[in-house]
């Protein structure tokens, strides 16, 4: 599977619905504009539109991010995803399998009450004007959504590397701006000296 995958979980996002023998889990794998503390290192929020180009691929629904425990898939129509004004909405038709039946029972009992998603950030911004850096995720590549027992903010090192890269880019931009300012000042000084020389020759 693709490297640099991050995982985020949200508690209280899973409901279940049974209709004409079909069992469906519904909820949100992500909600927009909600600040979450990631590993005590930085805060993070997801901007509306972050999933707009990500939900058209072949995405799986899993149990606890385990690729061996597939319970739905967009390609087969058993997993349906949409982005609305709240976030990434998920519907999964639960299969009559061991994992599916166990998951249904655990959701009914309230033992599992969270959803999560595995993703790679493709566009982001950082704000370090406050006490804690804030990362805004603007676009992602989506790999899977999961029903989870524990809220997990995994792979914070990827986010930290992204912050380091943003800082490095910022330092580079500052250096480039300073160099450009120096070049402008040098050209201005040279022009002023040339004008003074012309005036002296004229007098």
TrEMBL record:
One of its GO terms (biological process) is proteolysis. It comes from the Bacteria. The keyword Hydrolase applies. InterPro entries: Peptidase_S78_dom, Prohead_protease. Residues 15-163 form the Prohead serine protease domain. One of its GO terms (molecular function) is peptidase activity. This is Prohead protease GP4. Keywords: Hydrolase, Protease, Viral release from host cell. The keyword Protease applies.
């Amino acid at each position: 599977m693709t490297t640099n995958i991050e995982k985020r979980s949200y508690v209280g996002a899973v409901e279940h619905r049974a209709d004409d023998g079909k069992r469906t889990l519904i909820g949100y794998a992500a909600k927009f504009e909600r600040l979450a503390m990631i590993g005590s290192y930085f805060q993070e929020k997801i901007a509306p539109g972050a999933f707009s180009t990500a939900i058209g691929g072949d995405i799986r629904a899993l149990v606890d991010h385990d690729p061996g425990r597939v319970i739905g898939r967009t390609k087969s129509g058993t997993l349906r995803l949409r982005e609305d004004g709240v976030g990434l909405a998920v519907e999964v038709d639960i299969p009559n399998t061991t994992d599916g039946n166990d998951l249904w029972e655990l959701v009914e009992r309230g033992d599992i009450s969270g959803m999560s998603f595995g993703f790679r950030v493709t566009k982001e911004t950082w704000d370090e004007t406050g006490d804690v850096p804030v990362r805004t995720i603007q676009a992602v590549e989506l790999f899977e959504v999961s029903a989870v027992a524990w809220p997990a903010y995994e792979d914070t090192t990827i986010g930290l590397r992204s912050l380091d890269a943003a800082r490095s880019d910022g330092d580079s931009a500052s250096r480039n701006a300073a160099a450009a300012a120096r070049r402008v000042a040098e050209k201005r000084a040279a022009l002023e000296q040339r004008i003074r020389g012309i005036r002296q020759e004229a007098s």
